[in-house]
Specification:
Elements lengths: L5 H26 L14 H4 L14 E5 L2 E7 L9 E5 L2 E3 L1 E3 L5 E3 L10 H12 L9
Antiparallel strand pairs: 1-2, 2-3, 3-4, 5-6
InterPro entries: GriE/MELC1_sf, MelC1, TAT_signal
Pfam families: MelC1
Protein name: Tyrosinase
């Protein structure tokens, strides 16, 4: 049996701590987003699929229009791109590119590595991240 050394002890402790941290992040991401003050939660179970009756895919989120931190954010289903389930989000009239992930979460070009439960949450997070800067449309 190998001898217990300081290097092996620190390595084992670092591995255990990393596992605990990642587990905590996974649990936090599974419950709600951090516009975590919005009260919007990710649907789970049958609610995530909208039931079985007339199931043709995942329904688009409801449209919204509001002022958030002095910025006008709007969102609505879009069929202009020819894709079923497309959704358009505008920040002060400029389009914020959003995308739905396979697990029904949403990301944007502003917060590409952080997922959100709804397009409204994505728009609010983008406004926070922009810190008053203008949204420059994609080319």
């Amino acid at each position: 049996m190998p001898q217990l050394t300081r290097r092996r002890t620190l390595g084992a402790a670092a591995t255990a701590l990393t596992g605990l941290v990642l587990t905590g992040f996974a649990q936090a991401a599974g419950g709600s987003t951090d516009l975590r003050t919005t009260g919007e939660k990710r649907p789970e179970g049958h609610e995530a699929h909208g039931g079985h009756e007339g199931h043709t895919g995942h329904a688009a989120p409801q449209p919204f229009s509001e002022t958030f931190q002095g910025r006008r954010i709007e969102g609505a289903p879009s069929h202009a791109d020819g894709h079923h389930g497309g959704y358009t989000v505008l920040v002060d009239g400029e389009e914020l590119h959003v995308m739905r992930n396979a697990d029904n979460t949403w990301v944007s070009v502003i917060n590409h590595y952080e997922t959100f439960a709804t397009p409204r949450a994505v728009a609010r997070a983008a406004v926070i991240e922009l810190q008053g800067s203008e949204l420059v449309p994609l080319a």
